[in-house]
Each structure stands twice: as structure tokens, then as C-alpha cells.
């Protein structure tokens, strides 16, 4: 069974595929935060910008089979664009690797979808993902050591202005097997400050490129 918060179609706003049309499937639940505000300050991940609790979003619910989910994703794609090609689905959450399995990957591949995944990197991914984005969270154990992109959020709490310490942390990732390296400014009340901070680090460590969450600037979901 799969528990889904919502489906929506939009442009991917982050990372290498920013600007690309995609159907997003957001799974309910995460292993690093309950999603409840009262638990945020003691969670392993405290800066989350997403509501992934429950099943109350567009077409959210509990689904028994991968085929049902694949049908919804295909319908969502066709409602936006009847074209047969360049089909793209992004599984996110919450933490998608708590639920994404081989059945669901096969069902989407059978419908000619490329499959993107956004993960916090603490769970080993199944085979067959076409684009894996790992976004490590400080203080957690990283188990996804190979990925198409790493997207590290900076800073991970407001007021963490020790650039040297952050760069030290980045150096560890630089030696890992990622194809693309991104810094994403932490959104929240101090987003613009964090944007400047991320740009400053990119200037010092040119291996890293800036990923702004462009959907938020153009009012897309
Ligand atoms: C909501 S998470 C869901 C997928 C997965 N749990 C993860 O953390 O990668 C999707 C992406 O948004 C990023 N993100 C979450 N909160 C953010 C914030 N306040 N500012 C910038 N990026 C954020 C995450 O780091 C991740 O790359
Ligand atoms: N447009 C858009 N792009 C995104 N890329 C990653 C997202 C996420 O929440 O995982 C996201 C999202 O929520 N919206
Ligand atoms: S790991 Fe991802 S979904 Fe979970 S709380 Fe952090 S950003 Fe949100
Ligand atoms: Mg988002």
C-alpha cells in the first residue's frame, strides 16, 4: 500500500532539471520529522518547507497497487500535455524512499516515464531511478553515496554563519560520486540573506552551483 499526500503538475523548480515539466507525486510521511510543528525543534531535520502530513491534497489517499498510482500519474500528465514524449514524474515527500518500490518503478517505466526522486539520502534507493537527487541533512547518516545530483541546503539553521565550517562539510561531499553539485538557500523569513550566503560559498568553491527554488519566485506549486 502507498500513502500519498498529493499529486500536482508543475515545472521542476530545483537542480539540474529546473524548468522541466513534471508530474509530482508527494508521499506522506518522513523519517526525519513527524511533520507536526510541535515536534519541529527536536526533529533531525528542522527547516522543512513542506506539508507532507495526511492524505488531504489533490488526489491524496491510500492506494493498494502501483498500477493505480501509475494511472493517476499518466492522467495528470495527459491533462497537462497530450504529448507522448518526455514524460517525467518526480517522487518526493516527505521521504519517498520509505515507500517507492520496484513495482512502482516498473509501472511508470512501462508507461514511458522517466523517474526522478528527491531524497534525504538516509535510505538506500531501489534500482531503476533515472534521476536521483540527494539532499543530505546535517547530523544524519548518508547512505546514498552515488547520485545524479547533490543539493545541499545552506545554512541548515538560521544564524549558522560559520562559512569555514560549512565549507569543511562540503569538502567531504566533493569527493563522493555525485554528477552535479548544488547549494540551495534555506527558505524562510531570511531567504534573501541565505541566498547571498549561498552565492558567497559558490564563489569560494566553484564546484558548487546555485539552485534557487525557482517555482517560489514564479508562483508555481
Ligand atoms: C521537501 S524535501 C522532500 C524530499 C526529501 N525528504 C528531502 O529532504 O530531500 C524536497 C527538497 O526540498 C528541500 N528543502 C526542504 N525545506 C527547504 C527549505 N526551507 N529551503 C530550501 N530547501 C528546502 C530539501 O532539502 C529537498 O531537497
Ligand atoms: N516546482 C517544484 N519543484 C520542486 N522540486 C522539488 C520539490 C519538492 O518539494 O520536493 C518541488 C516542489 O515542491 N515544487
Ligand atoms: S527530510 Fe525532507 S521531507 Fe523530511 S523534514 Fe527534511 S526536508 Fe522535509
Ligand atoms: Mg517543495
From TrEMBL:
Q: Which reaction does it catalyse?
A: 6-carboxy-5,6,7,8-tetrahydropterin + H(+) = 7-carboxy-7-carbaguanine + NH4(+)
Q: In which pathway does it act?
A: Purine metabolism; 7-cyano-7-deazaguanine biosynthesis
Q: Which BP terms in the Gene Ontology apply to this protein?
A: tRNA queuosine(34) biosynthetic process
Family annotation (InterPro entries): 7-CO-7-deazaguanine_synth-like, Aldolase_TIM, QueE_Cx14CxxC, rSAM, rSAM_sf
Where along the chain is S-adenosyl-L-methionine bound? 47-49, 94, 135-137, 184-187
Q: Look up the record and name the cofactor or cofactors this protein needs.
A: Mg(2+); S-adenosyl-L-methionine; [4Fe-4S] cluster
Which enzyme class, named as a word?
lyase
Where [4Fe-4S] cluster binds, per the record, is at 30, 45, 48
Q: Where does Mg(2+) bind?
A: 50
Cofactor binding note of this UniProt entry: Binds 1 S-adenosyl-L-methionine per subunit.
Residues involved in substrate binding: 11-13, 26, 92, 221
The chain positions of domain Radical SAM core read 17-221
One GO molecular function term? carbon-nitrogen lyase activity
Q: Which PROSITE patterns match?
A: RADICAL_SAM (PS51918)
Share what the entry says about its subunit structure, partners included. Homodimer.
Entry's family note: Belongs to the radical SAM superfamily. 7-carboxy-7-deazaguanine synthase family.
Query: HAMAP family from the entry?
Result: QueE
What NCBIfam families does UniProt report for this protein, alphabetically?
queE_Cx14CxxC
Task: Summarize the protein's role.
Answer: Catalyzes the complex heterocyclic radical-mediated conversion of 6-carboxy-5,6,7,8-tetrahydropterin (CPH4) to 7-carboxy-7-deazaguanine (CDG), a step common to the biosynthetic pathways of all 7-deazapurine-containing compounds.
Q: What is this protein called?
A: 7-carboxy-7-deazaguanine synthase
Instruction: Name the gene that codes for it.
Output: queE
Amino acid at each position: 500500500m502507498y500513502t500519498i499526500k498529493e499529486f500536482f503538475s508543475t515545472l521542476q523548480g530545483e537542480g539540474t532539471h529546473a524548468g522541466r515539466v513534471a508530474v509530482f507525486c508527494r508521499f506522506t510521511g518522513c523519517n526525519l520529522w513527524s511533520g507536526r510543528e510541535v515536534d519541529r525543534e527536536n526533529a533531525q531535520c528542522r527547516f522543512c518547507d513542506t506539508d507532507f502530513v495526511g492524505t488531504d491534497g489533490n488526489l491524496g489517499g491510500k492506494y493498494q497497487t502501483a498500477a493505480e498510482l501509475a494511472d493517476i500519474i499518466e492522467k495528470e500528465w495527459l491533462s497537462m500535455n497530450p504529448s507522448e514524449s518526455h514524460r517525467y514524474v518526480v517522487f518526493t515527500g516527505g521521504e519517498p524512499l520509505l515507500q517507492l518500490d520496484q513495482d512502482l518503478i516498473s509501472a511508470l517505466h512501462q508507461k514511458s516515464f522517466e523517474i526522478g526522486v528527491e531524497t534525504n539520502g538516509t535510505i538506500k534507493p531501489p534500482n531503476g531511478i533515472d534521476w536521483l537527487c540527494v539532499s543530505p541533512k546535517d547530523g544524519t547518516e548518508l547512505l546514498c553515496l552515488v547520485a545524479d545530483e547533490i543539493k545541499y541546503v545552506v545554512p541548515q539553521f538560521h544564524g549558522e554563519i560559520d562559512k569555514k565550517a560549512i565549507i569543511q562539510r562540503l569538502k567531504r561531499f566533493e569527493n563522493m560520486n555525485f554528477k552535479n553539485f548544488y547549494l540551495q538557500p534555506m527558505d524562510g523569513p531570511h531567504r534573501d540573506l541565505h541566498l547571498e550566503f549561498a552565492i558567497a560559498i559558490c564563489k569560494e568553491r566553484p564546484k558548487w552551483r546555485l539552485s534557487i527554488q525557482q517555482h517560489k519566485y514564479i508562483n508555481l506549486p
